[in-house]
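Fill in residues.
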């Protein structure tokens, strides 16, 4: 057994034995009701229960920190048995008749876990407080078995890198826009100041320019601070995989008026939310309606955006030259409002979407979106004095 696995098991993970039980389905099961139609451009919700192909089973895993709890969750049909294996690195290797993604030194971690009536199982895995585990890697993959239909399938595999951070800090990837920024010439400086503020708050920050890297294993969240960059389509798949295996994502967009690139970025974000996550949120155009209003952190925002590490309930945060709008507060029902105008028709410019609000994908991390083309959107200034405190809550909120 690999050294990493031995240390993790010594920290309190235990093997569960036994074969899952379950009654076979009736010989002539009743027909399934079709899924309700989805709004145009929005994925239908994931199938549930016996209607879901077993190959749709998804292993969801959180980030791994020394001395903290790692969340392991698997979404499948109800009553499905689960065997999870771990190895010191990636494969391929052979387990029984199957070629898998773990390496040949694989070991059994869980045996015979069973999904509940809500089609999932969740286990909290304690990681030992051993600093030497920092940067150690391991791969996880699960075999699922339906005793009713006698089907087997392997889930996605996830490579994890254990990191050693303070309990109040996170490993953050900041994406900075340095090219194609004629319509947001402040983009590079704003991302730099934002990263410096996060570092001052105790976070470990890695900053990369313009393009999302392929290796995202070590990060707890991705803060995409590219105001007007229109990424390649492939980045949508990288973001989606990151949400399933590691942590949350922050997406910034703006300005819209007079900015063709900003308009295309808004469309990119809208497509990512709808077509990859199934979030049927409306994102309208932005015509500088925010310039004559006062915005604040909504009291309806999730607690984790309001309180860690700074308590920012009701704190003012300025939006100008917005990159679009989620519409009025009264009509917003696809996520959690975050940055909202306090006058006019109460436009929503910032929102958080949790995994429960992503019907098109099984995800472990949340997505925060901010539609703000303000030249001082990411760092405190005379015109936006509370930006550091408001946005400084993002790393902790997205990782949990």
């Amino acid at each position: 057994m690999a050294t990493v696995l031995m240390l993790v098991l010594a920290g309190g993970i235990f093997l569960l034995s036994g074969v899952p039980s379950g009654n076979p389905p009736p010989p002539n099961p009743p027909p399934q009701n079709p899924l309700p139609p989805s709004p145009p451009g929005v994925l239908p919700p994931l199938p549930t229960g016996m209607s879901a192909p077993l190959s749709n089973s998804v292993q969801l895993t959180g980030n791994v920190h020394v001395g903290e709890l790692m969340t392991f969750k698997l979404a499948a049909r109800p009553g499905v048995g689960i065997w999870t294996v771990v190895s010191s690195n990636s494969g391929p290797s052979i387990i029984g008749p199957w070629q898998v993604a773990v390496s040949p030194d694989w070991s059994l971690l869980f045996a015979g876990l069973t999904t509940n009536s809500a089609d999932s199982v969740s286990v909290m895995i304690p990681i030992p407080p051993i600093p030497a585990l920092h940067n150690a890697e391991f791969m996880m993959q699960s075999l699922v078995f339906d005793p009713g239909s006698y089907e087997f399938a392997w889930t996605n595999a996830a490579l994890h890198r254990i990191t050693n951070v303070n309990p109040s800090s996170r490993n953050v990837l900041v994406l900075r826009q340095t090219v194609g920024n004629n319509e947001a010439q402040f983009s590079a400086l704003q991302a730099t100041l934002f990263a410096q503020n996060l570092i001052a708050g105790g976070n470990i920050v890695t900053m990369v320019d313009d393009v999302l890297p392929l290796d995202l294993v070590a990060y707890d969240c991705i803060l995409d601070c590219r105001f007007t960059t229109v990424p390649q389509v492939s980045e949508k798949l990288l973001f989606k995989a990151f949400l399933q295996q590691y942590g949350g994502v922050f997406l910034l967009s703006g300005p819209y008026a007079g900015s063709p690139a900003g308009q295309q970025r808004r469309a990119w974000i809208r497509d990512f939310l709808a077509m990859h996550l199934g979030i049927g949120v409306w994102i309208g155009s932005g015509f500088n309606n925010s310039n004559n209003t006062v915005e604040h952190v909504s009291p309806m925002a999730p607690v984790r955006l309001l309180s860690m590490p700074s308590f920012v309930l009701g704190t003012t945060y300025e939006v100008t030259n917005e990159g679009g709008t989620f519409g009025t507060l009264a009509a917003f029902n696809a996520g959690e409002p975050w940055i909202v105008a306090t006058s006019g028709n109460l436009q929503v410019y910032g929102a958080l979407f949790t995994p429960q609000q992503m019907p098109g994908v099984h995800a472990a991390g949340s997505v925060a979106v901010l539609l703000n083309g303000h030249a001082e959107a990411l760092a405190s200034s005379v015109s936006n004095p509370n930006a550091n405190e408001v946005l400084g809550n993002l790393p902790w909120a997205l990782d949990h």
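The CA atoms of residues 91 and 220 lie 24 Å apart.
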